[in-house]
Amino acid sequence: MSPSAHRVVVRQDPRRPFVLDTRSLGRLPGTMWEGEITVAVTESFGLDLIRVPPGAEIGLDLRLESVLDGVLVTGVVTAPVVGECARCLDEVRDTFRAEFVELWSYPQQADRHSRTAGGGQGQDEDVLRLDGDLLDLEQAVRDTVTLALPASPLCRADCAGLCSECGAHLDEVGPDHGHDRTDPRWSALDAFRTSGGGDPPGGIEV
């Protein structure tokens, strides 16, 4: 056997919070399990402006169904998220929900798929695989949440944002807030008027 034919197998740890044991399904197509679990995440994940914070508890409403090629998982993820408003930079806290449907293939089915797709003896990285009877939801949950989070979260839909001149919250200062802009070409005349004396610079008549 050539060195490239060897495969390093990393076994899933059934004690990890996102790992589920599917033995009760018995690999009998049509067998189903439904339930809810809560998982505490150890690391933050998400986008730059809004993320699931470390230590947050994620709720998973799951349905596992045995099918011919593997285990089909339908789930709803409910997670607390924190971040900052893209307009006013105030803190944003919300509860976020997202749905996913993924198939975890039995190892022999996944290998057959790779060969059919022209992958030779290698593994198709896009194919989710069962590790024996163990199924790891972590990456699917992370991808689902990250892809569904808004890139520009808002504290509320009608947030007016910040004043571009002074940084004041426009919702707080009111609609009359503004800044008078003086044409720099008239700065000398303004200075003369403020001083209250002498002839206008450059022969300007006032």
What helical percentage do the residues reach?
A: 10-25%
Q: What is the CA–CA distance across the termini?
A: 97 Å
Order of helices and strands: EEEEEEEHEEHHH
- What are the segments in which pLDDT stays under 50 over at least 5 consecutive residues? 1-11
- State the oligomer: single chain
Structural class: alpha+beta
Mean pLDDT: 81
Q: What does the radius of gyration come to?
A: 30 Å
Shape, principal axes of CA atoms: rod-shaped
Overall domain count: 2
Describe the structure concisely for a colleague:
The chain has 206 residues and is of the alpha+beta class. It has helices spanning 107-116, 138-148, 170-173, 187-195, and strands at residues 19-21, 32-40, 45-46, 50-52, 57-66, 70-84, 91-105, 128-129, 134-136. The protein has 2 domains: 3-148, no CATH class; 170-203, no CATH class.
